[in-house]
Amino acid sequence: MKAREPARRVRTRVWVSGRVQGVYFRAYAADEATFRRVAGWVRNDPDGRVEAAFEGSRESVEAMIRWCHRGSPAAEVTGVEVQWEAASGARDFRVRT
Question: What's the pTM?
Fold first, then answer.
């Protein structure tokens, strides 16, 4: 029996456009990230978008990207921009102000 290799961590930066501020997008994103065991952060950008960094297994990070296309119940997402980055070793998820 082969020893199981540890899952390779990936990281992405995401910018979400639309009505995404003032609709609890960050709080819902933090809950979803915690549920999926994804590390990173989320914040409101001055230009009206929400920016986030997600780090974890590829499957979990891709699930967070899909979630961003829906967002919180009151959000109206019109666009999601994704940029893949090298994993940084993040271990928790924070809402930045």
Answer: 0.91
